[in-house]
Amino acid sequence: MLPGYTELILTRYAMSKLKDKNSRLLDVLLEVGKITSEDVEKIVQLRDKTREKADRILLNLGIISEEDLRDALGTIFNLEIWEKKKEEDLPVVDCLPQSFLHSNRILPIRQYDGYLDIAITDPSDESLLEVIESTTNRRVNIFVGCEKDIITSIDETYEDDTEEEQSAFSIDHDVVDDIEKLKDLALEAPVVRLVNNFLNKALEIGASDIHIEMFENKPKLRFRIDGVLIDYPPPTRDVYFATINRIKIMSNLNIAEKRLPQDGRIRLKVGGKDIDLRVSVIPMLYGECIVLRILDKSSISLDLSKFGFSENVLKDIRRLIRKPEGMILATGPTGSGKTTTLYASLKEIISPTLKIITVEDPVEYSLEGVNQIQVNSKVGLDFASGLRSILRHDPDVILVGEIRDKSTAGISIQSSLTGHLVLSTLHTNDAASAFNRLLDMGMEDYLVSTCVIAVLAQRLVRKLCECKEKYSLDKESMAKLGLDSDKPLYRPNGCIECSNTGYRGRIAISELLIVNDNIRQMIVNRERSNVVQQEAMKSGMKTLWQDGLNRVRDGLTSLSELERVTDDTSVKNITKTEVTNNKPNDIDDDSTIETTSGNTTIDEDTDDKTENNETAEKDVIQSTTPFHEEPPPEASFEEPVIDGLRDADTAPSDKIVENSAEEPQAEKGSDSGFIRNLQSNIGGLFKSGKQTEADKSDSKEI
């Protein structure tokens, strides 16, 4: 590090200490004599009246100069000052568009050894700095500069592209509906280059989805990396319209249709690899929203042994998929890897002696030796009609992409009862809830109990990068978690290799419920799912939370990541704990930037995201002690329960009670649970979250 350069972590530490930048600014300017106490009084009144920032008011009134503001901000944030030099060789950072630099007043001034130095006018915008780090994949060092110098330097550095970009990106808003003009703009070189750039960036960092959205006068570009959405520099409002139409043209969609949803597909060849992009366009309030699902066959390993399943679960799966008949269900929310697991299962049993047919919507990956049918609702080919035709082709194994309705469920069950092995997916949050879901669809209990032989519930958790750091909890907390107090835990740290997220790739955590005679009788009796799960646990089943704790114990993932993807609440009663670590307590150790990661081991589930609303809430289960619907007063209920986010791509929604009004349910979209209850004494170990009223009511209910 060159002398005078400031580490980003120190900058963030200063930011965390700064409660009100405007108030500090006035104090500093008053101390150095740039303003008077009368000026302060005047500025405060104007700020409260106009809601404008104090620095803008000071500049607009001419009370201070840009240099005065720059020096004051440097003092507040303890940052170096950047001054424009006549002959300064400034770098051109291709992944940061000129429009983005202009609108945010950012100037790259040097890049070296995994670092990027930037001059900026507002160093308090931490989210902006995270976007820059994630986009450039470099650590950022911050300098404070004058706005006029930064704008001038941007124009001088990027002057070769300015005229070309303006010609393509300047859109007369009176002719936004002029289809021919929009089509011409979409074919302009700068627009083509822009779309190619963010497609290449998404592939480079291993993103599974690209989201292009339009809010009020402000577009947004986000990539989903390892199940988490990350902001990236968006196109301007003018460029947004041309970008949407460029993608429509590439996917052979109607660019004139802006009132109805459209679906398409793009096939690309990048670096010798065939890439498929599923394109979905939906009209929103302020413009069309596009989501591109990236299907990179080369990044998917259809090998069950590499998915992260425990040895016992893997052995049972391999035994079950070789049975001649019955139904095996994979459950979980969208993006949990269900379909990929079923693909890998089929790949294990492909042989010349078996005929395997699938019905999918859509067919994501082509499997050699498997007959695959693409659902086409426009011509009446749905899951149910496809299944009826499949049975006339004498299959041995059938894969149904998803059981969505009574008709599909009925034919699937009948197929499994007539000598076929049926694999399918279902949207439930745990394995035991699958039976009640089928019963709620109208299936007969005796049929469900007879045909379903196993249910696999799974989630994908992010793997810790090699830069992970050790820490420890007190013995009492470790005991309540069921962990060895002498063994250290690990948490994300962040490095250049993982783009400062602390995570690289994902592995599966699972619970495999194998149906036995006792569970069959419970299904016939329509027992509640928590009772079924309790019986399965007696037979040796490990819950998602328990399987995840094993990954935490092995140092593969963190407690915060486990809580993010599971609904269990196994440590809610832990309210105070001491953490041993080597970092200052003031600095947030887990404030890593959620950006890029390495190649994923398991691709996201291929079900349409629009089916999320069909997902029923998981029954609240204890991890190690038997679950009672209403624990007796004398029962010791010290084994706590963890309540967390169901899935990264699932938005908070109202509680859905699947089986009965009295059944306790886990609230989605809440950052409650273990991390929240520990954060007061952990010293910033995990990110904070607010407890909702629903969380509180759930705790009382449990």
What's a concise summary of this model?
The chain has 702 residues and is α/β, with parallel strands linked by helices.
Could you outline the blueprint of secondary structure elements for this entry?
Elements: H1 8-17, H2 21-31, H3 37-50, H4 54-60, H5 66-77, E1 80-81, H6 98-104, E2 106-112, E3 115-120, H7 126-136, E4 139-144, H8 147-157, H9 159-169, H10 179-186, H11 189-204, E5 209-215, E6 218-225, E7 228-232, H12 237-250, E8 262-270, E9 273-283, E10 288-296, H13 311-320, E11 326-331, H14 338-349, E12 356-360, E13 371-374, H15 383-390, E14 397-400, H16 406-417, E15 421-426, H17 433-440, H18 445-451, E16 452-464, E17 469-471, H19 475-481, E18 489-491, E19 503-514, H20 517-524, H21 529-538, H22 544-553, H23 559-565, H24 674-682, H25 693-701
Parallel strand pairs: 1-4, 3-4, 11-15, 11-16, 12-13, 12-14, 14-15
Antiparallel strand pairs: 2-3, 5-6, 5-10, 6-7, 8-9, 9-10, 16-19, 17-18
Helix pairs in contact: 2-5, 10-12, 11-12, 15-16, 16-18, 18-20, 20-21
Describe the structure in your own words.
- With 702 residues, the protein is of the alpha/beta class.
- The chain has 25 helices and 19 strands.
- The strands form 4 sheets. Strands 13-12-14-15-11-16-19 form a 7-stranded mixed sheet, with helices on both faces.
- Helix 7 links the parallel strand 3 (115-120) and strand 4.
- Helix 15 runs parallel beside helix 16 (406-417) and helix 16 crosses helix 18 (445-451).
- The model is unreliable at 1-19, 160-177 and 569-702 (pLDDT under 50).
